[in-house]
């Protein structure tokens, strides 16, 4: 064959082409090793486009635009999303234990918001403030003022500047010293975590006890006026009663609306339906009892005949057009101005005890600091949630609710900017949302039962911080508990037979000791960048135990302590020795089809098992539990809803106050994020 | 000099033609592509970038690339000897070294195409399809870059070449096709498992872990894995490396290739003389 002849022109051309190819490959290879992929540094992005971690950016002062939180955006080597930290302390703190680095890789570059030429200063309350958003400077190049008199809502603030002069000028005015990044990095910041919230939950329970005891003392006043004997109507009796006395309302039906302008107790004979009860029936317009004075108590009444106006559309529209209002005037006016059985405006210290409200709108409507305590409250709302409104609506009013029941209507309890509210030992049935928190932080929602909720048992919207949602029992609802926000503790809850047990929407949070049984979907991982811990939960008999939305791999465990997944131990391995992936199709079927165990042992499946899990930041939408538990953490609660007594509808109680003491449970140390 | 190169070139062309006429090799390449593609598709690593894809591919690569290299190499020199063609070639003006170099170069070129091709296709697939889960948030590629996959590819080729030349060398001492196959398999197992088992053994025997970076580099698999960690995967873990002694690992891969080549040359060149010596010995014993 001629092609073997080395002398032909064709052969020479071939030889040259081959040489060229080899040279090209050599150059490309050399180039690939010479180039440093970690050297190409991405430009800063709009902070709104980053995935936020750290402090809540929705405290009142920040929302109102008065105060400013210096922010950081970080590009991690393995994570495709840009992570935004509210507050420099959050970023520094996240690097302390190395957990972030293991999940997302090292920071390729971090930019900090700098405030040169932005009129940095403080508000009247000492919060750091600046005129407009700052520029972005790499953390290593910026200068920082520490120990100045400026603060954030969470504590001391580190104020960054691009130039040393601007930093020095700020330090001259507000004290403190100018340091470099190395000094800031090595500082330790007191950043609260969800574990702090867990430790606080029993305290909040005790706070509720104190509030209720104080309310009982407030309501217990000497009788002065008896309706029917000393005055013809309740309204007249209240007008005649001296402050700090009790107006007695004997059994019977009173058709009137009452306005209370002094601190008295209105005491009926009881809220029942029998002849011994006291009924107050309004005229179907406006609220039945309107309270304008502090420390008013309403007890032993059955209230009906409310108007059906849920809110004031006129006010809402006006606020949109005016410019003077605060950021949420619209909702405040809209939601705060409807009709109710009892409506309190600027009336702190309201006590409601043994009261039933049959309402077309709200049961109790609280506005403008009407901090209230309710126990033994029964609110029966409309059959269709669109027709009615809230069982208790607290607008800028902190509520303490215990031993109450909310049926029908829109939301059982709706709270808007009602920090520190406590809802416990209550029952919610057939509402839209059972308990619905907006812009409300540091609340306790504990030991409640939710049944047949149209949207969800407990929902926390917006991004508040520091909620404890503990010991609740949600069944037959669209969703069990959906809490967004940060630093939220969701523990010891039981969810049975819901479409969705819970979602891990809250960031930097702790989800533990929950029992999740027979839901269509047990849990859903939502936040794109994992920052929470999900550990020691029991997943039993759910259609799917858990699914994950877009984002990095979620590791649901805390060191060597995982969750219990029924089905995870099927197969020839020692229980708990094999990682469990609820998002893998094979693992997800283990508790439903035994045959899945055979597929799982195939070389292909085991090979994939061995491969996945590294570079977690660059893995998309999935969950792994590296150390699934061999047995449920709370078999007694699982048995209570699956065993012989499963038909009983009574709420399952978890002894979280004994178990949740800080020393008893050290889950907040090692690895694992959701 | 020119004449010697010309000899190598002729052997090279002849050997390439041999490979081209063996359809089994193309089937193997397709099989490799199916396995790699399947792993990237099912493993999920390729969905987000090159580094996770390489993580998914590393283990199968360590097994499949040596396998393919051994398949390409185990008959390379044996076949000519068995068919008697080697005797014919000896009459041509081609030295033993020229012959071995020509054959090995051709087989290596085939390796580049048959192994590099599937890997390159998988890389192209990742390049075209890898994207973040959601576009709601700002995204960036981290340290992930096609350059890293190119590095991986550039490491796969010398890794395969080492096995190719070793298996070719081993095959020269085989006398039957079956024994060539068995010897190739032995080289494969010794290479894929032996080196790392030796490292594990020395560790459990009390050797200092500080020597791992050096001892790991001695076997072709260890050297390859170390280099991939150092220059591909490790880039996304921490700015500083230290998984393996890079110089030693590269020297190891090149060294195994050269050792294989030299051993083959020696076997080809000295083989007839050994035969003669053996005949002499036998004749003397018979006497």
TrEMBL record, chain A:
Region (Disordered): 641-674
Annotated ranges, domain Periplasmic copper-binding protein NosD beta helix: 398-566
Keywords: Repeat
Coiled-coil features, chain-numbered ranges: none
InterPro entries given in the database record: N2O_reductase_NosL (IPR008719), NosD_dom (IPR007742), PbH1 (IPR006626), Pectin_lyas_fold (IPR012334), Pectin_lyase_fold/virulence (IPR011050), SCF-Subunits/Alg-Epimerases (IPR051550)
Protein name stated in the entry: Copper-binding protein
A UniProt-annotated Pfam family: NosL
UniProtKB/TrEMBL annotation, chain B:
Entry keyword annotation includes DNA damage: no
Pfam families: ABC2_membrane_2
Transmembrane residue ranges: 24-51, 57-78, 99-128, 148-168, 180-200, 249-270
Keyword Membrane: yes
The entry's keywords: Membrane, Transmembrane, Transmembrane helix
Signal peptide bounds: none
Protein name listed in UniProt: Copper ABC transporter permease
Organism: Halorubrum ezzemoulense DSM 17463
